[in-house]
Amino acid sequence: MTRVLVIDSDPEHRRQLTGILESAGFTVAGAAAREQMAAHARDADAVILDVSSIGRLYGQQVHRSLRTDARTAWLPILLVGWHATFRDLAAGPAGGSYYLIRPFTASVLLARLSHLMAHTEVATAALAGLAAAVQTGQSGTGSPDALPPAEPAEPAEPAEPAGPAEPTGRPPR
């Protein structure tokens, strides 16, 4: 069963998110403080993070700490908040995260979370395959020695000379 960690300082928001996720079949852990977050994040498959504030630690700082910890850097993180500036939206997707602005429906939340988790699974599988290929020394590992020689480029066809201009439907000036 997929485990989702909900990090939100507001108990009502945590309760609402937990209800939506549990009704969709997720196992949910909730956290309001950094200490709780660190303990639960290592066991989670995904995180929903309120980026307004969590106790005294702001959501963006929590996001950064999850991304810089090797044990949680791979986690898909769905950022949620009431307000978003262009900077928030531009920074949100960094590191496999997605920004969702409140209010949102349960179906939008579940769709975004599912999409983010699927994207993370594909990326993780691709990296695992690449790592296995590098370890076994298979071709296509990114090593310059493993690449086939480049085919010579064919000369480009000469450009056709420009003909008379197409009529525009306007009378000449």
CATH architecture: 3-Layer(aba) Sandwich
What is the residue-mean pLDDT, rounded to a whole number?
74
Helix content: 25-40%
CATH topology: Rossmann fold
In total, how many domains does the architecture comprise? Answer: 1
Poorly predicted runs: 141-150, 162-169
What structural class should be given to the helix and strand makeup? alpha/beta
Order of helices and strands: EHEHEEEHEHEH
The CATH fourth-level homologous superfamily: Response regulator
Q: What's the count of strands?
A: 7
Please identify the top-level CATH class: Alpha Beta
Notes on the structure:
The protein is 39% helix and 17% strand. The chain has five helices and seven strands. It has helices spanning 11-23, 34-41, 59-68, 86-91, 106-136, and strands spanning 3-7, 27-31, 46-50, 53-54, 57-58, 77-81, 97-101. It is globular and about 55 Å long.
Features of the shown structure:
173 residues; alpha/beta; 17% strand; Rossmann fold; globular
In brief:
With about 170 residues, this protein is α/β, with parallel strands linked by helices. The protein has helices at about 10-25, 35-40, 60-70, 85-90, 105-135, and strands at about 5, 25-30, 45-50, 55, 55-60, 75-80, 95-100.
